[in-house]
């Protein structure tokens, strides 16, 4: 019966291609849009994820995400260092500072100041060197990907900036001593690394200037216990990197409406797939109604005929889903080359497959009901 079902399915190639194309389009929309949404969500926490050194992030309890600047008092660092279980704690500055390029181009930048003694909290990879270049006079590090993009001069020279050139950060001269590579972020301002003391000198004067305290725990110490002690004894908030990333992602998704927009697109893909596959599959059943009637007249039971339909639905669903997933993966490669966010976690193909097969089953349900009500005598009518 399986071979009969397959021959019926591919017998009309035009309808078979239309069925597969409808399912493939739905699968493409579902998996591609879900992957883009995941990619953008992950970018909201890429800076925290890249910073491998810290076991805990200590911050003002009102901080909502990594670029929400709410400074701490000068005593925060010493109070955190006194908590049991803390092996090391270092300050971290992060702030928005105006950056003037050599030709006068003025841009907004995010400057990160690393602890002068340890340089803890730096980018994951320094191109052709190490973080030690920051110990040079007036040295800063810029993202290698920003040289010809976010740091491109646009007034006179109209060219990319180079290592060794001088820039001005809030009227303080700085020299680009090297570049680094990092995971792309959700926000667009270029990130510039320097030392903590240099960053404070460049930043506009404020009574409080430390944004975060990074904590390294002693081996074997429970992270949640120390975080609770920090909250209890300092009144500050202590979050794990995973919690901080999750807080940033949920806040930005909630405030930007990204979840609603992508959810609508994914839902639209599901509905389109359902309508296209359902209408085409129902037409397919009507066109082959006499064949099903003949099978029932020859003694085939309703269960056997339903199995044939289920086989046809599964074949169409799997072939269409495979094609749609393949196109989604290819589009992801193209998006990545263009710098767009795309991350296909393993859950997306799994959930997408379940959604598409469910979509096909619902679409095939109407055809199955038609076959169940079919009288075998129809085959003998003119």
TrEMBL record:
One Pfam family this sequence matches: FtsX
This protein's UniProt keywords: Cell membrane, Membrane, Transmembrane, Transmembrane helix, Transport
GO cellular component, one term: plasma membrane
Annotated transmembrane regions: 262-285, 305-338, 344-366
Signal sequence, renumbered to the chain: none
Keyword Cell division on entry: no
MacB-like periplasmic core domain: residues covered: 33-232
Superkingdom as given in the UniProt entry: Bacteria
Span of domain ABC3 transporter permease C-terminal: 266-376
Its membrane topology: Multi-pass membrane protein
Subcellular location: Cell membrane
Family annotation (InterPro entries): ABC-4/HrtB_transporter, ABC3_permease_C, MacB_PCD
PANTHER family, per the entry: ABC TRANSPORTER, MEMBRANE PROTEIN, HEMIN TRANSPORT SYSTEM PERMEASE PROTEIN HRTB-RELATED
Protein's UniProt name: ABC transporter permease
Species of the source: Humisphaera borealis
């Amino acid at each position: 019966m399986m071979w009969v079902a397959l021959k019926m399915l591919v017998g009309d190639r035009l309808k078979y291609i239309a069925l597969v194309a409808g399912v493939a389009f739905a699968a493409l929309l579902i998996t591609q849009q879900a992957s883009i949404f995941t990619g953008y969500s992950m970018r909201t926490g890429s800076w925290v994820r890249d910073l491998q050194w810290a076991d805990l992030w200590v911050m003002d309890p009102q901080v909502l995400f990594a670029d929400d600047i709410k400074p701490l008092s000068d005593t925060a660092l010493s109070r955190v260092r006194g908590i049991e279980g803390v092996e090391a704690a270092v300050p971290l500055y992060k702030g928005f500072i105006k950056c003037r390029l050599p030709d006068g181009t003025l841009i907004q930048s995010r400057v990160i100041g690393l602890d002068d003694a340890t340089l803890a909290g730096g980018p994951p990879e320094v191109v052709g060197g190490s973080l030690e270049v920051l110990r040079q006079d007036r040295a800063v590090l810029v993202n290698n990907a920003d040289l010809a993009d976010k740091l491109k001069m646009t007034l006179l020279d109209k060219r990319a900036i180079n290592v060794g050139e001088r820039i001005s950060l809030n009227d303080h001269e700085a020299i680009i001593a090297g570049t680094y590579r990092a995971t792309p972020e959700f926000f667009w301002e270029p990130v510039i690394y320097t030392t903590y003391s240099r960053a404070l000198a460049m930043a506009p004067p404020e009574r409080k200037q430390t944004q975060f305290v990074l904590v390294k725990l002693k081996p074997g110490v429970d992270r949640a216990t120390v975080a609770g002690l920090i909250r209890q004894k300092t009144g500050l908030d202590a979050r794990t990197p995973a919690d901080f990333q999750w807080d940033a992602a949920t806040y930005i998704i909630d405030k930007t409406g990204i979840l609603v927009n992508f959810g609508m697109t994914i839902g639209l893909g599901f509905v389109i797939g359902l309508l296209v596959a359902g209408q085409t599959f129902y037409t397919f059943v009507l066109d082959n109604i006499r064949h099903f009637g003949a099978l029932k007249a020859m003694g085939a039971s309703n269960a056997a005929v339903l199995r044939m339909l289920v086989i046809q639905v599964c074949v169409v669903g799997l072939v269409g889903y495979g094609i749609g997933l393949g196109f989604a993966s290819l589009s992801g490669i193209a998006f990545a080359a263009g710098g767009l966010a795309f991350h296909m976690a393993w859950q997306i193909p799994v959930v997408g497959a379940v959604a598409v097969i469910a979509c096909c089953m619902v679409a095939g349900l109407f055809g199955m009901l038609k076959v169940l009500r079919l009288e075998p005598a129809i085959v003998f009518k003119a």
